[in-house]
Amino acid sequence: MRALFIAIVTFSLTAAGQGFAQQAHSGHLPAPASAVTTKNPANPTHEECKSVMGRKMDGHVLHDHSAEKGAPRPQMRHPLSKAAMDKMHGKCATKMAEPKK
């Protein structure tokens, strides 16, 4: 009898919850993208180049002896120079422009 009562109460609360739910309206939806981006192999974005070039576009690890001194810490990365980044973007553009095999 107790299990039947619990089942009826659970079912009624579940059914009532659906009845009180709000209808979907524009306040619940994300704003549409204003500009649709298309992939241009001649001018790839930085994220597209990172996906093609892999870890080569990450910064270089600075020479650090902190691990030898007993105080290990996360490795500090020095970002690539503007010339090195432009060179990487050029290589990326050529890789993306060549036809797929």
Describe the protein in words.
With 101 residues, the protein is mostly helical. The protein has a domain at 40-101. 42% of the residues lie in helices and 4% in strands. It contains three helices and two strands. It has helices at 2-19, 46-53, 82-97, and strands at 60-61, 77-78. Strands 1-2 form a two-stranded antiparallel ribbon. Helix 2 crosses helix 3. It is elongated, with a radius of gyration of 28 Å. The mean pLDDT is 77. Residues 45-71 have a biased composition (Basic and acidic residues).
Proportion of helical residues: 40-55%
* Structural class by sheet pairing and helices: mainly alpha
Number of strands: 2
Compressed to H and E, one letter per element, the order equals HHEEH
Keywords: Signal
Record the SSE blueprint.
Elements: H1 2-19, H2 46-53, E1 60-61, E2 77-78, H3 82-97
Antiparallel strand pairs: 1-2
Helix pairs in contact: 2-3
Summarize the structure.
Keywords: Signal. This protein is mainly α.
Descriptive labels:
signal, two-stranded antiparallel ribbon, 42% helix, 101 residues, mainly alpha
